[in-house]
Structure formats: C-alpha cells, structure tokens
Amino acid sequence: MKTRLLHSLLVVGIVLLQGCAGSPPKGEKESSDEVLAIARDENTPDAREYQKIDSLYRARDYDGVLSKSAGFAKNHSKSPFLDMVYNLRGLALLGQKQYQNAISVFKKVLNTTERTELRNMAQYNLAFSYFELGQVDLAANALDTTKAASLDYDNQTKFYILRAKVSRLKQDNGAAARDILNAIEAGRNAEKQAAAFEPMIAFFDDVVEPLQNAVILERLYSDFENSPVADRLLYKLGQTYFSQGARDRAKPYFENIVSKFPNSRYGTQAQDYLRKLDFQGAVDPKRIGVLLPLSGRFAKYGQSALQGIELALDIFRRDIPASKKLTLVVMDDEGDVDRALAAMDDFFYKHQVAVVIGPMVSRLGDPVGKKAQELGMPLISLTQKESAGGDYVFNVALTPEMQVKAIAAYATEKLNLKRFAIMAPNSKFGSEYARTFWDELEARNAVVRGYETYPDGETDYRRFVDRIVGLGENEARAREIEELNILKEAVPIKTRSKKLDRMFSLKPIVDFEAVFIPDEPKALGQILPTFAYRDVENIVFLGINTWNSAELISRAGQFAENAVFVDGFYPGSQKTLAREFIEDFRRTFNNEPGLLEALAFDAGRIAAQLLRVSMVPSRKEMRDRIMSLRNFDGVSGSISYRSGRLSKDLHILTVKSGRIEEVAQ
C-alpha cells in the first residue's frame, strides 16, 4: 500500500531557534485525508483502531495515544498501519518530552517500515530525540542517514536547522552556516512560507560572527549569492579580509553591499569601511600620535609618560636637522573610552599619523586596540594589561605575564629551584599573578607545594604562613603533637618558659625552596618576618616590580635580604643608555624618572627610530617594521618582537646588605 505521509509526522519546527521542544504541530488536512481515506476504505479492525489513534494525536491527547497504541502491535502484528501507529506513539512521546522512550519507538518504526518518507521522518525525529538528550554524536549520525531531499520544504527547513545546531555544538560553524542558508532557501520555497525567517537570520548571524576563514565564506557566498542574507556574507567577507590586512581584497565586498543592497542593514558600516580604505594611503611619515590621560584622575601619570615620549623624540633639542624632526600630535583621552576612540579617528582621518603611542589606562586597552586594528593603525600601547586587537597592536608596558616569566626563568634556570609556594592577596591583582606564576612553573616542570591567599589589607599573617608550613593542620599532625606533649611532661623542670614551649612545639614542614609573593612593601614588611618567626629558614623570597622600592628595605629590613624580584627599570643601572636617560630627564624636567617614564621613553624611541630609518609609505610598512624589531636597546630592557608581542629582558634585582642591587647575568 503506497500513500503520502502526513506533513505533521516531522516535528520540532523552528523550535530549535526558540529554545524549547514544544508540541508536535497539527497535521495538514490535505495529506491526512489521503492517509485516513485508505484506512476508512479498508474498514478493518486495525484500520479503525489506527483512525482512533490518529484522531487522539490530532487532538493532542498524548496520553490517549500512548494508551490506545500500547496493545496495537500485539493485536495487529501484521497490520499495514503498524509502522504509522509506532510513529504516532513516538510523536506522542516527543509531545510529552519523553525523549529516551521516543528513541526506542522510532527505532521500531525504522525496523518495520519500507516507506521512504516515513523512514526519513523517523530518522529525523530520532536525531531530534538524541539532540534533546545531549547525545550530539548520535544525533549527527541519525541526521547523516536522513535524506533531506525526500522531505517537503517545511520539513527540510526543520531538518537543516537541527543539523546546524548539531554542527555548531561540534564547533563547525562553516557547516552550521551552510545548513542555515539551506533552511532559509527551503523556507522560501515552502507553500505557506511557514518558516520563521527572523530567528533563522539571528541564528545565522550568531554562527557566522566567529568565522574567520575567508575560503569558507567565499564558497558560501558563491553558493547563496541570492539568499536574503547575502549582504551579511558580503559584510563578513569584507571584515575578514580587512582584519587580515588584505585591504584591497576587502574593498569589492563593501562596494557590493552599497551597490547591490542599498537598503541593507550593513550599508552604513560598509560605507564606513570604504571611507577607512580611502584613507589608508593618507599618512604623514613624520607624525606620531600620542594618546594619554592629560586631565582627570590619571593626569599626573599621563604627564609623566608624555615627558618620557618628548625626551625620546628630542622635542627640546635645537640641534636636530629638519630632515630628522618628528611631530607629536598629542590628544587627551581623560581616561574615557569614548574620547579615546574619537581621538583614534582624528589621528587617522584628520592628522594622518603613522603610529600612535598609548593609551595608558588599562580599561582603554581593549577598545582602543580593537579600533587600531580596525583602522590598520600601528599602536604601541602603554597599558599594563595587554590590549586586544591583532597584528597592529603592540604592548611595550610591563605586564604581569612578562614579570612572571622573567622571575620564574631566573628561579628555575639560574637558582635551579624546583619546589615553590605561593602567597597572594585575595584580589584580582593577586589572583592574576598567582595563576600566571603557577602556569609558568608547570610549563617548566617545577611544582607548587603550597598556595595560600589572604584578605587584601590583612595585618596579621601568622595563620596563613602556618597553613603553608603545616602548622595550622593540628588534626593531621595529632600524633606528633601527642608525642611532643609526652616528652614535654617528662622534662623535670617546673618553671615553664617560651623557649621550652617552643622546643616542644610542632616544627614547620618546609618542602619548598622559594615563596612567590605578589604584593606591596607594606604587606611584605609583615609577611617576611612571619616566616622567620615560624622558624622557616633558607628559602628564597620572589617578587614583582612593586618590591623595587626603598620602602621594602625600611619595612622588611634584614628579612628581605637575598630576596629576588624583577622590574623594567632600575635607576642604579650602570648601562650607558640608562645613565644617559636619567641624566637627560633630570636636566630637562628637574625630576627623577621612574618606570612609567622609562617605558614611555622606549616607546617613543622605537617609533622615532623606525620612522627615521627611511620614509614610511604606509601604516602597514610601519607595522612590519615594528614586527621586525630585534634586540632593541631600551632603558627598560632589550626589546624584541616575539610571538605577537614586544618582549623585553627585564632587570633581575636583589637585596644585598640592605640595598637593592641588579643581579649580574
């Protein structure tokens, strides 16, 4: 018996986009009449039973379907309607979200039916059940055996949407995008245009956004250039090529949006990109942009950084030949994101600078970095947090990762230490340093024996030190405590003293060789003596650039002796460049330079030196020159471009006889 099956036998619809399974949709009368007509014509017991089950399903009486269909196979094992009853039972289970039970029923459909359409619908519903249970691989396998072409357009739409969901979970956004495009095409061909296009387009946007493979995007556009979302593909292609530096390849895609899709929601953005492309070649090779907070709460630091940059560019020298003179275009970001982004546009469109130095405030790093990448503007950032962006963004500041790598390298390679402990303030600052240091140690096959955090601003560190050296674990060391008490009672001395009590107290377990403490001198002045008070000796204290302060000596005194830490600037350095920088800064500004001034000075010298080598024909050329930087002699260390960043060899410092000194390497 051949018959066309109900459209409603394929469930789920666009529910995947709406975030819930929902109930199976009502059947369409045209197809149901054909199926039921055959049952009525036969008027056999099994046909009448099938009609009742079908009627219950259409009324959404899923309990009735399950009750009525339970004995059908036993009573009518040879019925030509058996496969359809199984299918209705499976659909009722889906309606009640009993996915595991539905799976076994749809498998029975596949084992009993020879109808091509029913097999494909059952395979699809089997896939949907697996998907709802989170069994993505099994769902993918079931979809692979479903022939979408045998389904009507409405059900093809549902099939492609489900497969797109599976592909996205399997992190194949290219395949997911193609299936959504197929779903949109099927929806456009459906007789009643039942497909929900807006959710599908939103789903498509979500899937395409992370795609960065231009080849995949090119193929999608080639195959679906008449799709309602073709303008989205064009825009994504333009964006992708633009971000990869292939500006010439990006331009035609933006132009196509403007010409072919005048009403596109991407029209304004496309025109903005075209404007940027038109200005790509407009660059003044003698202009450097400077973006700093020169007013507001960070003004003091911005002014200090500006002094370092001005010194690097010899702004106050009159003996520089005109051919070597460079111009600074200085703009105040006030520490505000909107002002910083507006300044970047001015640097690009109005002042046509070749490179920008800044920003300095960390919260501006990511938005300004992304803007620089979008504009194709080389950016030498001074933020302690590395700026997001891409190959046009370079960070010259002293980052936590830079410091941690340097101190871990010295501790493991020069001091041959393998076992460490970490004490850090329970703050974002402390957590970042502690986590990064731990990761770096693991990469070097070193181990962390103890880790403790303490409240930021703590004043009594005894219990935290005790936990690191096992003095706070009285239950774990109960047997030792009992034995010490027995020995103590056996001593024939009536007068007890602190010295005697200490003699019979638990001894610290020091199974580490060094302690890393990313904190300020105020806290260190209490933490370091606490280790000595707890009889923890012969360990090395490791720190970060905050340790490089006379306050460390005044607060921690002898307990800081032989501590090792890093910094990007050491005023006592005997290197010629460092001495000249300090003397020039004093003479020019009547002030002492610090790390910030040194970092800004290095950023200015990098920009100036690369621009003075020869004329820079484009910002891309300036970017390439920065990327080719190797062993640049900076006052904050030797600077090289490595693995997407400006890395430097930091100063390794220690305390000797109550003075901070540089370690000879």
In percent, how much strand structure appears in the residues? Answer: 5-15%
Q: Measure the end-to-end span.
A: 90 Å
Q: Tell me the structural class.
A: alpha/beta
Overall geometric form: flat
Reported for the largest beta sheet, the result is: 7 strands, mixed
* Number of separate domains: 3
Topology:
Elements: H1 15-18, H2 29-42, H3 45-58, H4 62-69, H5 72-75, H6 82-95, H7 99-112, H8 116-132, H9 136-144, H10 153-169, H11 173-189, H12 197-208, H13 214-223, H14 230-243, H15 247-260, H16 267-279, E1 287-292, H17 299-312, E2 327-332, H18 337-351, E3 355-357, H19 365-375, E4 379-381, E5 393-395, H20 400-414, E6 419-425, H21 428-443, E7 447-454, H22 462-468, H23 478-490, H24 498-503, E8 514-516, H25 521-533, E9 540-543, H26 550-556, E10 564-567, H27 576-589, H28 595-613, H29 619-627, E11 632-634, E12 637-642, E13 645-648, E14 651-656, E15 659-662
Helix pairs in contact: 2-3, 3-4, 3-6, 4-6, 6-7, 6-8, 7-8, 8-9, 9-10, 10-11, 11-12, 13-14, 14-15, 15-16, 17-28, 18-19, 20-21, 25-26
